[in-house]
Write a structure and sequence with these properties.
It is a single chain. This protein is of the alpha+beta class and about 350 residues long. Helix 2 runs antiparallel to helix 3 and helix 2 runs antiparallel to helix 5. The longest helix has 19 residues. The chain is elongated. The two termini are about 30 Å apart. It binds calcium ion (3 copies). The site of one calcium ion has 9 residues, from loops.
């Protein structure tokens, strides 16, 4: 399902030129919400991509992805170019461009940069100027650009934007006075960006995404750049997919050189997916090899489900407590620790939220 990004000319250069002249620890925090902190991810290639195992249910609470992306390893030599992505996609889809040119399986940060050779070179000595370096956008379909933004409304001129293009080094004294020019935020970025992506579901299959970069919300001007705040800001986009089963993924694709990107200080906050008891039985059968243990656990889950169906929640909860005890006793023995932790979390969720069980 993974399709690689094909080299594609940036269409945003015109507006940026216009701007020149104008300007692993799990920490439960509440009954449902979880914060996951992950080790830094460094990708190199060529092509390299992956995902985190956790499955998130955006219908239960917003999902917030916080990380720093370091783009200093992207190579700007003639003939070399690369893109990176970090976001969420529905379980079962690929880890780079989960969909291509059509939405349907999530939303992610896509990074790009000016196609001029040596674009990351410093400004001429003593002549700082606003120039194009890094571009960061939300994407819900591989290969698509900022024209996909549609919140609060579709920008009539997607090329007139704020907090989409960034300059790694300085600007001149007049450019520094332009609205939206912020030292160490939109210019003098050094090629690293603090990103926060916030996802909110509007149904089981649709949601809304917003992103801040170095703390700045993104925006679009109507109809063209003018002094003052962007007219459509914060700007975001609707997206589609299975909101109950989203996984975070990351990827790099580049050519013409060995490129690297790193994602650091990764934190994801949201509600982990909880399957029904019936779905959990299937998972146990697929992931625990000792048949006696599988039979014992499934028997308990069958009994608990029967009690839930009769409305006997206390009895069901007692059975689930026995289930938890059995899993804990076998954790690291006949049940791998990560699978045991997941089963315990699910059983605790069924006890607390019986509507999730059946
Ligand atoms: Ca440049
Ligand atoms: Ca620059
Ligand atoms: Ca510059």
């Amino acid at each position: 399902m993974t399709k690689l990004n094909k080299p594609r000319k940036l269409v945003s250069i015109a507006i940026a030129l216009g701007m020149v002249f104008t300007s692993l620890a799990i920490m439960p925090i509440a009954a449902e919400e979880t914060i996951m902190n992950y080790s830094d991810i460094s990708l190199s290639g060529g092509f390299q991509a992956g995902n985190f195992e956790e499955v998130w249910d955006i219908t239960k609470s917003d999902l917030v992805l916080t990380f720093t992306v370091d783009l200093n390893g992207m190579v700007d030599d003639s003939g070399a170019h690369a893109w990176s992505e970090f976001g969420v996609r529905t379980v079962g889809y690929g880890n780079f461009n989960p969909t291509w040119e059509v939405e349907g399986a999530g939303v992610w940060l896509a990074t790009d940069y000016d196609w001029s050779a040596n674009t990351f070179d410093p400004d001429p000595l003593g002549i700082p100027t606003l120039d194009l370096d890094d571009k960061l956008i939300l994407q819900k379909a591989g290969g698509c650009g900022e024209g996909d933004y549609n919140l609060p409304s579709i920008p009539p001129n997607p090329l007139a934007n704020h907090a989409v293009w960034f300059d790694r080094d300085g600007v001149d004294q007049w450019q520094a006075l332009n609205w939206g020019a912020i030292d160490n935020v939109t210019y003098n970025t050094g090629g690293t960006y603090d990103v926060i992506i916030t996802l909110h579901s509007t149904s089981d299959t649709s949601g809304e995404a917003y992103m801040t970069i170095n703390g700045r919300p993104q925006g679009f001007y109507v109809p063209n750049w003018h002094s003052g705040p962007a007219d459509l800001m914060p700007a975001g986009m609707t997206f589609t997919g299975d909101m109950k089963q989203m996984q975070a993924f990351y990827g790099l694709y580049g050519d013409g050189a060995v490129h690297t990107v790193s994602f650091e200080n990764i934190e994801i906050e949201g509600t982990l997916y909880v399957p029904s008891i019936n779905e959990a039985k299937e998972y146990i059968g697929d992931n625990i090899s000792h048949q006696g243990i599988v039979n014992g656990l499934i028997a308990k889950l069958n009994a608990a489900a029967k009690q839930f169906e009769k409305g006997e929640e206390n009895t069901a909860n007692n059975i689930l407590m026995a289930f938890i005890n059995e899993v804990e006793a076998q954790k690291g023995k006949k049940i791998p620790p990560d699978i045991a932790d997941k089963l315990i979390r699910w059983a605790e969720a069924w006890i607390e939220y019986p509507e999730l069980a059946i």
